[in-house]
Design goal:
The chain is α+β, with helices and mostly antiparallel strands. Helices cover 52% and strands 16% of the residues. The protein is globular.
Length: 383
Amino acid sequence: MQFGLTESQLILKNNARKFFPAECPSAEVRRLMETETAFDETLWRKIAEQGFTGMIFPEEYGGLGLGMVEMAAALEEMGRALIPGPFHSTVLLAGSVINEAGSDAQKQKYLAPIAAGDARATLALLEGSGDWDTDSIHLRARPSASGGYTLSGEKFFVPDLGAADFFVVAARAGADLTLCVVDAKATGLRATPMAGLDTTRKLYALILDNVEVAKEDILATGEEAKRALDRGIAIATVGLIAEMVGGMQKVQELAIEYAKTRKQFGQPIGKFQAVQQMCADMYLYTESSRSAVYYAAWALQENTPDAPSAVSVAKAYASDACREVGNKGVQVHGGMGFTWENDVHLYYRRAKASEIAFGDANFHREKLARLVIDRPAARIAEI
């Protein structure tokens, strides 16, 4: 891999840095936070017109056919602008799973509208344990007379369900994992908003009571479903880390700017060594996270053998790093960091929510330990 972005990737990243703050400034972020779904049709349409909703999808389904490195570059700037709404759940969660598991007909039906920006979607995965391991999925899928399934059970922490046109649900058909697409207006669904720390992304509890799924809406079953779900979660995890890096970058910038202008004892607080050390630590955490996530994005893009470990290394480090950057950003601002008028607390709330999403640092360290134990001795050095 190259240890830097190519010229075209830098152009994409710079354009994204101009686009997102211009189309969704802080005042608009705050407005959308107060709405029921944090979704705005006009903003979504502008994002789609720029091609962001189809970046990583094949051209035959309306995508741009770009890679995860380009997606990470765009998502970093999206996180820096704290873009609210269902982009992550639509493109990186549901879209990636459909792209991995769906047939050509299913991709034409569901993936093409996502790529075009004509549909929003999400993934209903987590259950009572809140465990990101696929072994924790127990929602029942019983065979129906039509050849499809009848789904019954509960899902929790479903992101952006209120803005979704349809969603992918992970269930159990006997002992096998299965992935199905369900219309958000299907009979037998009941969604309830859940309280969340990050109000730019709404969470829901979902009850499915004998929800009918047609045979043509079953994406995959068994090992194929597990492979597609694991791949989709890995892509979504890398995308989230890229957003976390963008948020860390913005908190660092806000803290440095404040340290230059806030004066105590007749001089800017940035001249005090304790404040300088906090800013230096923020820089270290941000740059280290950035290096880890771009390598993980490249590894996923190229399907390298160490891709799973690269994703877990990046998430384990960034989960701790984003919390520390948020802490230090608030500390540099002092009492101002806790006020509603200051933006730094908005990034801290996103950081705390992202810290545990797709598994916290401990979850991924345990995952790395299992990868080491299960991997042949000759391959351990690759991690």
